[in-house]
Every structure is written in structure tokens, then in C-alpha cells.
Amino acid sequence: MTDTSTPPPRLYAAREPIFPRRVSGWFRRFKWWIMVLTLGVYYITPWIRWDRGPELPNQAVLIDMANRRFYFFFIEIWPHEFYFVAGLLIMAGLGLFLFTAALGRVWCGYTCPQTVWTDLFILVERWIEGDRNARVRLWNAPWTAKKVRLRATKFTVWLLIALCTGGAWVFYFADAPTLLRDIFTFQAPLVAYASIAVLTATTFTFGGFMREQVCIYMCPWPRIQAAMMDEQTVTVAYRDWRGEPRGKHRKAEEAADLGDCIDCNACVNVCPMGIDIRDGQQLACITCALCIDACDDVMARIDKPRGLIDYITLEDGESERAGGPHTPVWRRILRPRIILYTVLWSAVGLALVAALVMRSDLAFSIEPVRNPINVVLSDGSIRNAYELRLRNMTGYDRDFRISVTAPYPLELALENEDGLTVSVPADETLRQRIYLTSAPDSPASDIPALDLSLTVEDAGSGTRVSEGTIFNGRQQ
To answer: Which domains does the chain have, with CATH numbers?
Structure first.
């Protein structure tokens, strides 16, 4: 007979709210500076102006989806140059591997958007509701007019931050002042309002309510980091051989038998993830180092050396436990694996810079028309048609002369043009159909696939670009 008196265990536990205590110290100040810098860059960048000429947008950073362009100050990326974006993504991945292998989850602890906005939301929460103890009391208190007022104020400020976050994002995709005016006059496209609404809702939810759950359950990086870290990776850890056994140290004779940890839980109370670093390495730890600031403050008060919780390696931990020396951090970072990641990261970056410096402001592509591959004219001549795409990658109009180089004479003609020169507007791609014709008695007419070269020359500067293609003669 089955016992039904005990309910089955729940697969998912309800979230336990975390109320981090305010802490001061070097790492906390460093995180403040990172927050100001990252948020400042995110919110201000769309409003920076950059003069590119009368025909081009003057927004410094702009993702122009309509015209398929990406502008970054003096750099303009065209669709056929997507390899620049791919290279930047590769650099981002290698950079993440590099910093994780060297210093653990420094990305998660300092610069991840989830961390930055959660820090900002907690700061607002502390300003309005008070520090940890006050927030805990408010959470457990019954609903009163004061609690409703404080919660409503906090949620309103959170919502304004989330709204500014969503609004700032859409400004990267259109001229910011124009789009702002259109949004307030209800003339902006529907996709702008939808994007702002989605980003506002996600920022409000993730930063205000889900917080550490995003890092633990939604982000894949905590699982991937295990492959990037080893025993020589510098990360936040507790020196248990120094701190244990822990106790309150109420009497001198008791303190002689105890470690340096007085079990004050300061490291736990400041942790935004709600974990106890003294339990060892954990998936939830984002190595924000706030526990180091909290513990160092306590050690100073009880006249103990700092570093009970510190940035160390597992290898150093084993060495110190056995009474060995502590290896300097720089020697842990300068090791073959880190050097390899650095070389790869630098190589990709240098390749992108070289490609950017050497790229031409004139580009074209040519594609033979395959249906039909050629046309036999009434006099027996063979004509091939080609689709030519001319890219003028400057801020002014340019005239281009088109010529052909082949082993045998071919007549070149441009559709809807009297000569062999075509004008391409500033920062535009022009589609031009061209024709190559061989005489009936020319050897080119009897060659199934004749290699040739098409050249485009800037009529003003003399810049030349060539590309190969084929001429289809009579097929055997």
C-alpha cells in the first residue's frame, strides 16, 4: 500500500530573495567605475555626432539596416565586408577564453550586462528601502501604506531605467534625435515601439526580479567556464587552512584553538548571488570579489592580516596548505596557455586592422547571366551579358570607366549608356548590365569558356580594380 501522507518532493524550489548588504573597498569601487563607464558608453554613444559629408548620416555609431551599412566613427562596413563583424565576434570569443583562463569569471563579475544592470537596480533598491536589514524587515512586514509607497517608488524607478535601456538600444538603428522626436509624436515605426517594449520588460524582469537566476539557469557560460579554467587560474577563493575552525573568538583562550574566520557571515551578506564562498568553488559564483572587501574589512577590525578570502589559484592553495610559498599573480598569468590565447587574439585583431587599412574605396562584383549563357546575333556574333555591381565607398559621386582585357578582341557595351563611363552616387551600389560581343570569325567565338579580366577605373583618381570572369563562346 502506497503512503500518500507525505507529498512528493518538488522539482523546483521557490526563489529565496537575496538582499546584499552594502560594502566598501577596492573591488566595490572598481565595480562602480565599471558601471559608470559601461552605462555611460551605452546610453551616450547614439548621441555622438560624426561628420561624414552631406549625403551620409552624421551619427557616430549607426547600424543602418535599411541601407545595409554599419557606421563606427570613421569606419563604414558594407554588406560584402561582413568578415569584419565575424572577426570581431571571433575576437570577443577568444577574449572571453583569455580572461576566463587567466582570471576566472571576471566578465561575469564586472562587465556582463546582467551584472551591471542588477548592480544598478540593487543600488536603487538600497537608496529607497535602506540597507540589507531594512530591506529584510520590509520584505517580511505586512502590507501597509509605507510598504506600498516604497515598493511603488522602487518599481517606478526600475521601470524608468528599463525604459531608458530599451530606448537607447533602438537609437543605434536610426538617427537618434529624429527617432526620439518620432517616438514622442507617435510617428515612429511599429518595430521601434515593439523593441522598446520587449527590452524594457526584459530589463525590468531580469534586473529586478530574476537577478542571480539568469546567471545560474539561463546563461550557458557558467557551464562552459569549467573547460576554460584550470588549477592555475586566478579566482576568488577562501583560505580554509587559515580560517578553520571558525568561531566567534569571544575569549583569548578560545581564539588560540580557532582559525581567523570569526563566522560573521559578512562575505555571505554582501554576495549578490547569495552563496557562501567558504563552501568552495561554486557554479553560482561570479567572482565579483565583494566578499573580499567584506572579509578584509572584518580582518582589519580584529587585527588579522587581509587575504582570508582573496584572488588565488587552486595550485597556490595546495602549496600554502603545505606551508609552501605563494606564486605571484603575474607568473600565473604569463603561462603558455594564456600566451597562446593572447597571440591568437592579437593575430585576429591585426588581420582586421590590416584589412581595414588596405581595403579600397572602390569595389565591384561581376556575375555572368546564365539564362541564356550567350546569344547568337543575326550576323553570327556571340554576345554574353553580365550583371555588374559597382560600389562607391566614398561620400561623393564618382565616374568609373569600364574596360575589358582578353586574349582576343571583344566589344564592350553598357546598357542604357552611350559610352563606357558610368556615374555612381556617393555611398551607393549601382547595378549595371554590360555586354561583351565577339565577331563571327573571332577565335573567342569558338572557345567554350574564355578567361578574361574586367577593369573598373576611377576617372578622377585613376584607382583601378580588376576581377576575372569568363566569356562563353559556342558550346561543343
So the answer is: 26-227 (no CATH), 232-322 (no CATH), 362-471 (2.60.40.10)
